[in-house]
Specification:
The structure is a homodimer. Chain A is built from 9 helices and no strands. By secondary structure, chain A is mostly helical. In chain A, helix 1 crosses helix 2, helix 5 crosses helix 9 and helix 6 crosses helix 8. Chain A is elongated and about 60 Å long. The relative contact order of chain A is 0.10. Chain A binds a DNA duplex through helix 1 and helix 3.
DNA sequence: CCCAACGCTGACGTCAGTGTCAGTTGGTAG
DNA sequence: CTACCAACTGACACTGACGTCAGCGTTGGG
């Protein structure tokens, strides 16, 4: 039974940690930085988390879960929206989430891998689950002639990587970050690739 | 005037460091790990590098330079190979390099960002230079009708990210790592995207 | 009003990893 | 044989981030 008080403090610490990690990266960030930003004493931190890796893992896992949660499976009923619109809506949700949480994009897509073997494993499992789900969707798409032929895992890897990089670049300001433009760019790429015909 | 002796030792240390970083990630890796793998005393390390970040930076910068160096600009002369073949050859070189250096793929594409602000800056400059070069190539391609219209920065971001993720996944074994298949997959994606027409 | 439970504090001891440097080794030239 | 020097060694002193815990306020139910 976590009291509302506890829950609030926990959230404050998570937000402070997110900002510190986004700013200094995992290595340079210290627990002292986090508690300082939170205006709280060192010991308090350890009432809520085991250590630096624990908060980091909580942040990243939570964000990945939110990303995964923003993806709805594509309905094929006669009264459902066209699959392409459902795909676009999924993309739009992910992009919106990312633009709402620029710090988490930096952390989860930029810093999270290679920090700790155990965390890597957890993230790999997330990724595998998401990948399997999308693979099935793609398979259906191929059966219905909506998705071109080819090795689905390779296609997925490229598509997911492309989206990730686009979001990273948008957050870093390397690229304009208008949500609609980003979604369009991805849709166009999925639709036509890069080369003319 | 670096003696061949010195140069050799330096290379040994770099290789040891690469293996350690690939295995344990940046955070968990220690200078002791590196010298142990190299069969050399602690002090020796500091005759060649300032500290852990210095070797890391040397490894990553060198790898990025090799990647950039494996990309040739696309010639348009009447006696040159078709642009698409030149593009494929560039891709093939990058893929070959990546498969020859799986450890460096993990490090450079997985761990390198967010480790240190100064290093991030250096990498960002690399990325920007490469991106600008490719942007010009793409612009020419658009003028010649070989590349479809659209915001080049966005297209590039997606394409580069897609390739990176594919290489990461290939190295991690999430995806078959046959070089030819990987090159084909990317070419198909650039050619046709993901969706059927 | 009381006090028990809860949340919080921050100084403190610990320790893993760091970087140094006085001393050793081994190859080479005179 | 000796003198030299570049390369190497590894014990040592040091650092700073870590996690703890005994004690201090605060809050709210009785």
């Amino acid at each position: 039974m976590t009291s509302p008080r506890r829950e609030l403090r926990r959230r404050q610490l998570l937000e402070a940690a997110r900002d510190v990690f986004a700013e200094k990266g995992y290595v340079a960030a210290t627990v002292d930085d986090v508690v300082a930003r939170c205006g709280v004493a060192r010991g308090t931190f350890y009432l809520y988390f085991d250590d630096k890796l624990d908060v980091f893992g909580a942040l990243v896992s939570d964000f990945f879960a939110r990303v995964a949660g923003s993806i709805r499976s594509i309905e094929l009923g006669a009264d459902a929206a066209p699959p392409r619109e459902q795909l676009r809506a999924n993309l739009a949700r992910v992009v919106t989430l990312a633009m709402d949480e620029p710090g988490m994009v930096k952390i989860a897509f930029g810093t999270a891998f290679g920090v700790d073997p155990a965390l890597d494993e957890r993230l790999a499992r997330f990724y595998a689950a998401l990948s399997t789900f999308m693979d099935e969707t793609l398979q259906t798409g191929q059966r219905l002639g909506l998705v071109r032929g080819g090795d689905r895992r390779l296609m997925l890897s490229i598509a997911i990587g492309g989206l990730q990089q686009l979001l990273r670049d948008a957050v870093d300001g390397h690229v304009p970050s208008d949500e609609h433009a980003l979604v369009d760019a991805v849709m166009d790429f999925l639709q036509s690739g890069l080369l003319a015909h």
